User: Fold these one by one.
Assistant:
Number 1:
Amino acid sequence: MSLMDFFRNRNKPATASVAKERLQIIVAHERGQRSQPDYLPQLQQDLVEVIRKYVKIDQTDVQVALENQGSCSILELNITLPDR
Amino acid sequence: MAKILVVTSGKGGVGKTTTSAAIGTGLAMRGYKTVIVDFDVGLRNLDLIMGCERRVVYDFVNVINGEASLNQALIKDKRIENLSILAASQTRDKDALTQEGVEKVLNELREQFDYIVCDSPAGIEKGAYLAMYFADEAIVVTNPEVSSVRDSDRMLGLLASKSRRAEKGEESVKEHLLLTRYNPERVSKGEMLSVTDVEEILAIRLLGVIPESQAVLKASNQGIPVILDDISDAGQAYSDAVDRLLGKDVAHRFLEVQKKGIIQRLFGGRE
Ligand SMILES: Nc1ncnc2c1ncn2[C@@H]1O[C@H](COP(=O)(O)OP(=O)(O)O)[C@@H](O)[C@H]1O
Ligand SMILES: [Mg+2]
């Protein structure tokens, strides 16, 4: 790197490192989604509809995730109810 | 045993066809009977890059439909012995390629060739899926740029879960990273992801780095695979990649900024 580059880079952050950070986050997220079974989105949808019969919630208020631990799988449900 | 090699990427315009032509030609030059198959139905281009566009009579879909025999459709390269091309169809029918049809043709190709190089279309839809489905090895072509890296990772996900090897529970498809259109100068300025950055994110073995090079356009203008331009940086980088693919241990080149010599500096060194 020349002296000129040094001064130029001092003011601006290197955009490549921004790109790398963003990629690491999105790729990790998408890999996590990939290992989930195909039925999860439908299951989430069904759960939202059942709960909506009783409480007004948003699509995103129900989160489902499947975690594998050895020979058993744990279905994790996270339902956020509106403020009382 | 014949090997099926897919050249894939997810994203379009990253250098899959350039790479298929170069790697296929390189394998044939090293004595392997090689065929390069264009899977880009509707957007045939491999024939132009290989310089045999005027010799296409029958294509991949004709063979699937039984309108021509495989040997009628195979185009023998005029420069390199052992090298043939199977052109894509220009049809607009997206369903022209079927899984059974592709399998039948690949099985027939296996009997004649050592390497079957499949030039994948862009995307993750049917064409790209069929190109990668039967693969033994995959060359994932990636540019040092966010959307290309992300799409490559998606393609790796597909290879790991939806390929024939994955479905049959066989040994997984061997994955190779080929980083193309690399610009060491921009990397050194922090404007472009570096080889190490991309390797770290995708976490697959690095097959090679092909520099951004004027030789690629020059070669495609003339219908000559760039690997035949053996004094060009891109040609040499592809040649190294072929050697690595065949198991040779070759040091990576063209990763650093090339210092311009005094002559080049005086005369504005373009070439
Ligand atoms: N290493 C390289 N240096 C410069 N240009 C390149 C390089 N690799 C590919 N290109 C150019 O990029 C464009 C897309 O390449 P192509 O091989 O057709 O990509 P794809 O098959 O992935 O769509 C072409 O114009 C090609 O000449
Ligand atoms: Mg192409």
Number 2:
Amino acid sequence: MANKTSTHAHPKHLYHHFIDSEQQFSAAKMGMWIFLGTEILMFGGLFAAYIIYRAWYPELFTMASHELNTIWGAVNTVVLIGSSLTVAMAIKSAQLNQKRNIAINLGITIALACVFMVIKYFEYTHKFHLGIYPGEFYTFDGIEHPKANIFFSLYYLMTGLHGIHVTIGIGLMSWLLWRSLKGDYDSEYYTPVEITGLYWHLVDIIWIFLFPLFYLID
Amino acid sequence: MATAEASSNMKKVQVRRYKPEENADTNYLNAESGLRSWLLTKDHKRIGILYLIATTFFFFFGGLLALGIRMELWTPAATFIEADTYNQLFTLHGVIMIFLFLVPAVPAILGNFFLPMQIGAKDVAFPKLNLASWYIYMIGAIGTIFVIFAGGIDTGWTFYMPYSSTTGGAVTFMSFGVFILGFSSILTGINFITTIHKMRAPGITWGKLPLFCWSLYATSIIQILATPVLAITLALVGMERLLGIGIFDPALGGDPVLFQHFFWFYSHPAVYIMIVPGFGVVSEIVSTFSKKTIFGYWAIAMSSLAIAFISFLVWGHHMFVSGQASLANMVFSFLTFLVGIPTGIKMFNWLATMHKGSISLKTPMLYILGFFFLFTVGGLTGIALATIAIDIHLHDTYYVVAHFHFVMVGGMVMAYLGGLYYWWPKMSGRMYNETLGKISALLVFLGFNVTFLPQFVMGAQGMPRRYFNYIDQFQGFHQVSTIGAFILGIGFAMVFYNLVKSLFNGEKASANPWNSRALEWQVASPAPPHNFDHIPVLIHGPYDYHKPMADFQLGLAQTNGHEPEMGTHIEADKEVEMKD
Ligand code: HEM
Ligand SMILES: [Cu+2]
């Protein structure tokens, strides 16, 4: 039809309701930023609970924090920061059209995320072993404070919700890895890599708050 | 083929003008057929219809529960059900009406359908997410309904701690259902904000954005900022029941008032999720049926944002008697008064729009007039409740019940029904029966007042809310209220009948039966599959009633020069018709 607006050929990745790739890319990015805003508010609820209980029982937080293993917490912090770097490198590789490096960097990111989860697994099981369960099931008697269970409820809730996010991130990046191995991403189109990267940075940043708030109280 | 020049940001853009087809052969309803084409659709219009069907079902279900509550209150103590059943009835009624009906009603039905059309886009920014949001909604909704068979729930829609962590029944299940519903609402919010920012057609500057879009924008901001907090709060309620985490439960060392803070941090803004989209509908209808440019465009647009902002600062007005510090009470009370300012600004601008307009009292407009009366009462009684000394007396009485029904039903449901009638020709391609429409509108208005006005009096005299039993003094009020509820119910049933009947034998609708200047009316009815065959260029504003109807033809950008940029200002110096 003579009066169709769009004259340039539609690239494969472009959805029909966008005018061009530029619009599609900036919309996807904006959507992800807003989503990250909602994530911050969701964690925000837990952080608010943390702040309130810490203000009420500062001595509890100092005592209970000694039960957490600072070394493993620190290792995990380094691991996650490293994975943020590699995911950024995956995006850079896409921009430079180095298709193979996209996959390699995503692979490393996934591996680091798994290391994080494995360390977390050992931390959790070690505590379960001592009887440090969340809430009602708490049986540990090494902390002289009547509300020690609440500290660990918060610990499990916040690190648990964070862990769920890491797991979702592993899932997303495995899918990206598969698609990048098929050669779907290049410098023309790498929106999913970019926005998953944004998500991953947020997961990383949340941990950067969780680590000092739980492990480094003194 | 004639052309007119238009300039956008120094770039020269060619704009041709064309008349869209009347009664096109293909529209979004018949472009594809079969159940599959509906269940897997990514078309925002069809998703709007999916929401319409689902929420209508839940609305009538919730309505039946309400009639059950009212019938039970015909006599003190047991009339036809047990106290426990009564508690479950009002809980389910509240949850269904708020989370399954009112929150999605205007945004997910009318917003989904008309937001992209009003900004000249082919779809929302993320059509797949849009469909996903409907499925998430359905899963959450079915989960919520399933609660009935899993032991029921009697906490009230507010899930107050510690009762909700100790009572029997399916509270965990319900909180999970509402948690899921929250995500559907978040996805809609993300979609709308991105769509409004990124998908506006050339010529649709922020200053030409229809006020319905502005109101959806404000609503979406509340949705994305408040809903995650509700999600985490309900997750904590679930955890409290499953693991006894002790954050809210005083028996385990927790603090139940903390729960109330969390809950109202969401739920007060949520009442604006429920009303602000209605404000947008009112703006559209008032202007169209007064044949006048909207008065105070920017004041109306910005007051929506102001309401969104203030709504986050007033949650404590639900907790005046929860042992909140008296300083906090005073601050929350004062901040709550402030909400009246932007709300009042809107009312005055709407009235000024009607002033000296040529008002046509069609059914949609009748609902909006109803809205003006009822919402004003609802809002002013809110101010009364925000006054601490008065609230101590009125808190948890029928006065509060009447207050929020005046805003939620008298305000939002009125606006919703007005909007549904108004846009029905575009959605269905048919005209409803005007006489029946008017009669049912009057019946709804009458039934509503008979139901809820007595509740103000009862409440002020001390009738507590959520009680199964009452002293004899209140029986007269309760019986009037029950009669009103049945009148209201008949009114709603007639609305349903009228709209459904029009599908079978309604007159065929023209593209623009109301002579509206807004963009969605410049295309065929029912809407074409992709809204616009070409990207339209907007030359006039959506409320330019001072210009002759003949001027309202769509512009069409030529691509030989530059593509006009999305959302930039377009000015056509010469306006020449194009024969095509
Ligand atoms: C001018 C604006 C408004 C003001 C000043 C206001 C004020 C208040 C106050 C102070 C209360 C607490 C009463 C108490 O529990 O003792 C309240 C309750 C309530 N309001 Fe409003 N309100 C306003 C608008 C709205 C709107 C627009 C809606 C809904 C669309 C709404 C829905 C409700 C609901 C549902 C409750 C009861 C909550 C419950 O305890 O179950 N209000 N309002
Ligand atoms: Cu409120």
